[in-house]
Structure formats: structure tokens, C-alpha cells
Amino acid sequence: MQVGKPLPSFSVKDLQGSLLTNKDLSTAQCAVITVWASWDYESVSQLNMLQEQCEKANGRLKLASFNVDASKSDCKRTLSSKENIGRNVCEESLLGGKVMRSLGLFAPMNNILLSRGKVVGIDLSTDDLRKKVESLSQ
């Protein structure tokens, strides 16, 4: 994964059973792929921030999150209180999901920021991610 390069091809089923692909995110003015876990406070906090940004962006921000909990039920329990949180994936393989690895994502708080399908940021802090998302999704 390199800044300035297009997002690599991938496809994976989300929690609703729908196929999520790189093409779903490539047309967005701004898109974020993030990794989180119900047991990792900082990653849940980052997910909450991204939820707020989705609400502010009025459709100009797309979000895809990869959960690294051991079970989909743990992931769904955490997401049950959230709305407008984008597409969520749980490969139920902790930190070893095939699609996550192919995107260079290995741990909670890893993230990829995209603009029109090109990578514009990797592994940004929550504050830097918020600032860049606000700028790109205006």
C-alpha cells in the first residue's frame, strides 16, 4: 500500500452478507477503511469519530471497517448502538484476515484514507484522520 497509488482490488462479504469491493469505495470523494476491536478502546473511539464524520458529510464520506474480534456476535453487539457507520466486515480470524492482510491492515487503529480511489493517507492518528476527512469531505 502506497500513498498516491490506487486501492488494490479486493472483495469480501460484510456483516449483512453483501459483497464489499474496492469499487464501492473508489468513486467516493472521501473514503476510510479502518480496523477496530470491541476490546480496544482507542479503535472504538476512532470508529465513533468516523461515525460522527459520516453524519456531517451528508454522503460525501464512505466508511468500511474491519473488526478483529473472534466472533461476529461481539462485533454486532458493539455496533448495535451505532447508526450510519458504513460497511462492516468481520472475518472472524482475529488479526489474520486474508483481505485485511492484502490491504496491509494488521491491527486495531490501522487505517487507509482514500480520495476518488487513490490512497492519500495510511495509519493516521485519530486527530489527523479527523482533520483530513473533514477537509476531503467538504
Could you list some keywords that capture this structure?
138 residues; alpha/beta; five-stranded mixed beta sheet; two-stranded antiparallel ribbon
Can you put this structure into words, describing what you see?
- The protein is of the alpha/beta class.
- It is 33% helix and 25% strand.
- It is built from five helices and seven strands.
- The protein has a five-stranded mixed β-sheet, covered by helices on one side. It has a two-stranded antiparallel sheet with strand order 1-2.
- α2 links the parallel β3 (30-36) and β4 (61-67).
- α2 packs parallel to α5.
- The model has no long low-confidence stretch (mean pLDDT 87).
Q: What's the count of strands? A: 7
Low-confidence stretches: none
Mean pLDDT: 87
> Which term fits the overall shape?
globular
Measured as a percent range, the helix fraction is 25-40%
Placed side by side, the strands forming the largest sheet appear as: 5-4-3-6-7
Strand content: 15-25%
| Helix/strand order, N-terminal first | EEHEHEHEHEEH
Q: N-to-C terminal Cα separation, in Å?
A: 25 Å
Class inferred from helices and paired strands: alpha/beta
Q: What is the makeup of the main sheet?
A: 5 strands, mixed
Rounded to the nearest angstrom, the radius of gyration is 13 Å
How many individual helices? 5
